[in-house]
Structure formats: C-alpha cells, structure tokens
Amino acid sequence: MTQLFASHGHEVVLVDLSEQILDDARASIATFARLAALVRPGSTPPPAGEVLGRITFTTDLKSLSDAELVVENVTERWTVKQPLYAELDAVCSPDTVFGVNTSAIPITRVAAATERPEQVIGTHFMNPAHLKPTVEVIRGLRTSPETVERTKAVLDDAGRRHVLVGDSPGFVTNRVLMITINEAIALVHEGVSTPADVDRLFKECFAHSMGPLETADLIGLDTVLLSLEVLYADFGELKYVPNPLLRRMVEAGRCGRKTNQGFYPYASEGVRQ
After folding, report:
1. What residues does 261 pair with on adjacent strands?
2. Rounded to an integer, what distance in angstroms lies between the CA atom of residue 86 and that of residue 213?
3. Residue 22 above 80 pLDDT?
4. What's this model's pTM, rounded to 2 decimal places?
5. Nearest to 91 by CA among 122, 63, 55, 58
6. Which of the residues 8, 10, 124, 130 is marked catalytic?
C-alpha cells in the first residue's frame, strides 16, 4: 500500500515496530518499484528513487499527526488492534479518516474503539496491494457518506477501483475465501489430495490464477487461522472451525511465504522453490 500511494504522488508515512522492519520494507519497495515497468508492460511508473523520496519511514506514531487517511494494518488480534485506535485518536487530526485493512474483524467494532466512528471505514486491500486493481470497501454502521466519498476519491486517485459492501465479519471476500481455504486444508489433512493437486484443480479447472493453498501461503497461515477464529467467534457456526492441520502448521512456525515454509517451500525472497 505504501508503494501504491507513493507511486501515485502521495506523501506517505510508514509506521512500524522497529528499524529492522522498516529497512526490510524500504528494500522491498525499492525492488518492486524498479520492477514495476516489467510487471506492467507499457506502463511508465515513476523511478524507484522518486517513490522512496515520498515515503517517511518511522517508528514514531506521532508522525501521523498531519495524515488525511491512516490505513491500519496491524495483526488481526483484537487485543492489539483496539488500543491502537485510542493512540491514533490522540495523535491524528480530528479530520483524519481511519481505513481498517482487516481480514475479518467487523468495521463497526473497530469504530466503537475510537472517538470518531463516523470516520472509520474498511479498506480491504488484497495482496500484493500495488498490483491488485480493486479494493473491498466496507461501510460500518456509523460510517458517514462523507467518509465513503473521501475514501473513494483517494482510491480513484491511486488508480484503484472499489466495491462497496456492508459490514459483516469477514465481509464478502473472506467469508467465502476462508471457508474455501479451510476446506482445501481439510482435503490435504484427510489424505484425499496433495496441496499441489488441490491448487492445480482450481487453476486448470476454474482458471484461477492461484489455488487456495498457494493463496493461504501468500496471506500467511497465521492470518488465515486468526480470521477463521474471528469468524467462528462471531457466527458460532462449525463451518468456521479451523482445521487441525492449519493450527499445527502455525504452531510449528510454518506460516507461508513470510517464514519461507507453508504448504510449499520458498526461497528467502518469497519465491517458491
């Protein structure tokens, strides 16, 4: 997301927990910005140096004091997400809109954790955000029409389409996707098929660009697990209970591309081996 907005002329402040994480992010953005023209032949993306020049990398949350839009991307754990919004309320301008890039937590619940519920909206970017053309936008129960319009304008300016949906745990995309991934894991757990064959069927039979288990590795198996746990806690339906194999893989630290091992092995650059 940082690269996306910076590539479209926005000044961006990237806040994270440590200098090491920020250094890794700076290196990744530099690499992807240099490759942007190859990924989209015929496009004329700005030079990597220009993109990086629009980004402030910092661990100081107070650097967001002048931001018009804050897109929050912390983990799906409510105990982490909830107190952050009190901090954002304290440091951000009263006019700042809070965009929530959550996988499953309802936007109305997040809005209740702030002093500006009318200015909280779901901005569910898919991974990788700088390549996906469409963003799922979620209107919470108290999200104002002005907040919707301001968010749409920012996305339009970044060359992104949007689909506006109502609020629900998992929204539209992840209520469908997480069940699909969980069932694909169940098929592997039961010995019905292998990860490679499950993914091959989806790609060759349905023309999907990625199979469900490749997608799970990209998202992060820990995030998939947390999303299913949120869905089960909110709906209480057994179809959302995480498969035991998913839980064991996360406990073993095999969380997908981010740990270089999930359903598939990956090289250190996140490229599948």
Report:
1. 256, 265
2. 36
3. yes
4. 0.89
5. 63
6. 124
- 118 DSSP assignment: G
- What pLDDT shows up at residue 218? 94
CB 107 within 8 A of CB 138: yes
pLDDT tens-digit profile of 152-165?
999 999 999 999 99
Write a three-state SS string for 161-197. Answer: EEEEEECCCCCCHHHHHHHHHHHHHHHHHCCCCCHHH
Which of 145, 134, 94, 143 has the alpha carbon at shortest distance from 115? 94
Give the whole-angstrom CA distance, residue 216 versus residue 262. Answer: 8
d(CA 139, CA 154): 16
Hey, what are 228's tokens?
């299913």
pLDDT tens digits, one per residue of 97-131: 999 999 899 999 999 999 999 999 999 999 889 88
124 an active-site residue?
Answer: yes
Q: Retrieve residue 116's tokens.
A: 């500006």
